[in-house]
Amino acid sequence: MADPISVNIEKCTGCGLCSKNCPFDAIIIVDKKARIGEKCVLCSACVQVCPVEAIKIERREVKVDLSAYKDVWVFAEVGEGCAKGVSFELLGKACELGKELGQHVCAVLVGSDVKKYADTLAENGAEKVFVAQHELLGHYNTDLYSTVMAGMIMKYKPNIVLFPATKLGRDLAPRIAATVGLGLTADCTGLSIKDGMLLQTRPAFGGNIMADILCPYTRPQMATVRPNVMPKPEPKKGRKAEMVDVPVKLDPRNVRVHLKEEIKTCAVGGKKIEESDVIVTGGRGACEGEGFEVLQKLADELNGVVGASRVAIDLGKKPKSVQVGQSGITVSPKLYIVTGVSGAIQHTVGMRGSKLIIAVNTDPDATIFGFSQYGVVGDLFQVIPALTAEIRRRKGK
Amino acid sequence: MCVKQVPDTTEVKVDPKTGTLIREGVPSIINPFDQYAVEEAVRLRDAAGGGEIVAISMGPPQARTVLIHSLALGADRGILLCDRGFAGADTWATALSLSMAIKKLGEFDMVLCGMQAIDGDTAQVGPEMAQLLGIPQITYVDKVELDGKKVVARKTVDEGYEMLEAKMPVLLTFMTPSDFVPTNPPFSKISKAQKKPLETWGVKEVDGDPEKLGLKGSFTTVTKVYSPPRKDKAVMLEGGPEDVAKKLADILAKEGFF
């Protein structure tokens, strides 16, 4: 296959701008002509700076040969001792897309000791699992992970790559997109196939607007996908996937960002708020007295966790790790019970994707009722304990 | 410093005829995450005892106001990328335009941005720029200190925080700490800011190829913009705490929550 990047020797003046601007040191000037070396990742930085348009990347000119790109990939993010729940949600969606396209569903594991997670990915729908293992990949590092992923994408040519829209996924995916030169859609809440292409639906303007986005010009089509939106598939016990061990060569000298210290601030009981199906949140109204203890008791009965609005964090009632909202975490659980929160946009942006929202507030005009399916005008210190007691009674406690 | 002008509220509506956003009548502000990044840049510069802060924004002519705002907060110079050729850019084309402008400015120690803009919410332009500039990135930073030519940043991750160290040049994207109160520059600083250098650059000034910037250079296409399906107004449950508790328990039981 001809290299997609080429230098028009007649046009090239040997000015060296391309070489200077190449982020990968891939271009040298030999005999007053640019020569592109193996380090080139087709980022097109050189094409941009060449004053005489001597460098050409075919991909940009011709219509993409769609047939060369096949399969639906899921970047499987790994948590502590397991693949994260969002990985399974993505696999469930990938199976739907793969079925419609008649293409395979593949999971990608990157890390130092991650092969052991392949079976659970297979049980959740992966037909093939790519495993890229290296001791330097034990802790997430943007440069190393993007190098590995970009290499795999260029080698195996997937049609679609889905990443979780977690902090890790949203750090990694754009880096890969810019490395390979790919379109990328952020934080999708809907994915389907339209005219053979991936139709990506995402909210913008704090959820006031939905946008449908296509990526007609580049392959693979890449998207980060909001956690807790896609349903988890029903795992099939004992299902196996084809394993592909990806050779990884990394140089420790390429590590540019060094981890000095990790500070874990997980939610109480180790259950993370963004992975929880049920969240009971308190705002200003819950900051008096034993407000959060009252909420915790209800959360315990519903197997959920307690969240908090920014006010409650600022008053030191709850740790930052459970802050829901624009400067905190975006959640979309199955059930969101919100108490003592007026409904400022800064909070609602972080929770309006929840499936069932129940609001309790003393103010009948509180904005939060506009975001809820059910509302109760009342004091949380009366309503919530009564609800907890009612649930306990029905459980026969 | 990359800053973006965004609508003050997220109460933006769609024109039912054209399917495009109606931004008119909605006051514009600096993206709040960018404001924090500017204030951090000023703090770092003053702590280091020198250096130049260049604020760059890409947008229509009125985006100039966010640059004036940045200059009033303490930035030294403003560049507005304003050209029809930049318009319609997706995150890739935006990152490309901004990174070309940064390269054009010459050597730099740090590129600082907000973690995302509150209108688009993509969080992609920062990392894409870092890659195009060939420098490392640290995203979701809420605290940063300098140690000579090194940056030590506290990054928020899903599990908590990480203290990360990188040599300059580096790109950081900021998230606001919960106790952050944005500074509103006084009028005197705003009028002083008017006198600071503020240039407008077009596609030509960044040595850009019009075919590869803006809408033409974008890899993704927005095919449709629409209002999300409206949720019906909340059903209000009435009665005393015990009555309401029973009704709520019915709903939760029906949905299988216990």
Word description of this protein:
The complex is a heterodimer of chains A (397) and B (258). With 397 residues, chain A is an alpha/beta fold. Chain A is 26% helix and 26% strand. Chain A contains 11 helices and 20 strands. Chain A has helices at 17-21, 45-49, 58-61, 85-101, 118-123, 142-156, 167-180, 291-301, 310-314, 345-348, 380-395; strands at residues 5-7, 27-30, 33-36, 55-57, 72-75, 105-111, 128-133, 160-164, 184-188, 190-194, 197-204, 209-214, 221-225, 242-246, 257-264, 278-282, 305-308, 335-339, 356-361, 374-377. Chain B has one domain: Rossmann fold (3-Layer(aba) Sandwich), CATH 3.40.50. Chain B has 7 helices and 14 strands. Chain B has helices spanning 32-48, 64-73, 91-105, 125-133, 187-193, 214-217, 241-254; strands spanning 5-7, 13-14, 21-22, 28-30, 54-58, 77-81, 110-114, 137-147, 150-157, 160-167, 170-174, 198-201, 221-226, 235-237. A 5-stranded mixed β-sheet of chain B has the order 7-11-8-9-10. The longest helix of chain B has 17 residues, at 32-48. The mean pLDDT of chain B is 89. The interface between A and B is large, with 107 and 92 residues.
> What CATH architecture of the largest domain in chain A do you see?
3-Layer(aba) Sandwich
Biggest sheet record of chain A = 7 strands, parallel
Category from helices, strands and their pairing of chain A: alpha/beta
Total E-strand runs of chain B: 14
Main structural class of chain B? alpha/beta
N-to-C CA distance of chain B: 50 Å
Taking the sheet with the most strands of chain B, its summary is: 5 strands, mixed
Record the strand order, biggest sheet of chain B. Answer: 7-11-8-9-10
- Note the gap between the termini of chain A: 70 Å
Stated plainly, the CATH topology of chain B is called Rossmann fold
Query: Uncertain spans of chain A, ≥5 residues at pLDDT below 50?
Result: none
Report the helical percentage of chain B.
Answer: 25-40%
How confident overall, as mean pLDDT of chain B? 89
Mean pLDDT reading of chain A: 89
Q: Helix segment count of chain B?
A: 7
